[in-house]
Amino acid sequence: MEFIGYMSSILIGITLGLIGSGGSILAVPVLVYLFRVDAILATSYSLFIVGFTSAVGSVAYFRKGLVNIKTAIIFGTPSVISIFLTRAYIVPAIPNEVLTVGDFIVTKSIFLLLLFAILMIAASYSMIKKNKLKKEETNDSQKINYLVILIEGLVVGFIAGIVGAGGGFLIIPALVILSKLPIKEAIGTSLVIVTANSLIGFFGAGGHVIIDWTLLAAVSSFATIGVFIGMFLSKKIDGTKLKPIFGWFILLIGIYIIIKETLLK
Q: CA 160 to CA 196: how far, in whole Å?
């Protein structure tokens, strides 16, 4: 199972390097079901892994001039504040037993996994549906709505903090539609925002978690290898064409998690 886990870690990086998002969607299931990490801890580990690999991936975009610093600051600042507060205060405040339905007890771990599964299904829809972002990026008359960007940043930070996801699949469309960024620049800017979100979210947990740095370093290393593979493949393959396939894959994993954490308990 560990071997499969490390191979899956490479896929996390490939996804980030190829399409700029989706890596964190894989990280939590890999940690929980292949490495047997507790779900609550997995949300923290996921933030570090995705933050580290996104940082590596963003370097290449910086070199190509495909990172919009101003937009990253405007969008990233409320997002970073939101994820920090969520990880530091909201997640620890969730009770160990969230809900009881008959004989079935929804524990904090099950609750977070179910939330994550719902997020995966939502993310899969955004990946499967026909992409209209390229049309949006040519709309020069569109005004940048800073208030909407601020609200979107807060929402992304909250979601990322609760389930341990970087939120790239939410950030990229927002940057294209709200900030009028070309798709490649949106991906590069998104990676920078995801880096800040994830790493600050991880360290924002403070003393609430005990970290297995050996496992974390190993998974992050394999994921980093995947990032380089993904960036290499992006020169030969249009990542946007692979999004629907990845979306169906994410949908199946989301459904599996719901079934496993409810019907199979």
A: 12
The tally of domains found in the chain comes to: 1
Q: What is the end-to-end Cα distance of the chain in Å, rounded? A: 21
Residue 120 and residue 125: Cα distance in Å, rounded? 9
In a 3-state reduction of DSSP, which class is residue 145? Answer: coil
Work out the number of other CB atoms within 10 angstroms of the CB of residue 26.
27
Three-class SS state of 60 = helix
Rounded CA separation 66/69 (Å): 9
Contact 32, 14 (CB under 8 A): no
Structure tokens at 109: 């771990």
Cα separation, 218 vs 213, in Å, equals 8
Range of the domain at 141: 2-261
Burial tier of 226 (Cβ tally within 10 Å: 0-12, 13-18, 19+): buried
Whether 98 and 108 have beta carbons less than 8 Å apart is answered as yes
Q: What is the tens place of the pLDDT at every residue in 148-159? A: 888 888 988 898
> Could you report the per-residue pLDDT of 28-71, keeping only the tens digit for each?
889 999 999 988 888 888 889 988 988 888 888 888 888 988 88
Going by C-alpha positions, the residue among 85, 65, 66 that lies closest to residue 77 is 85
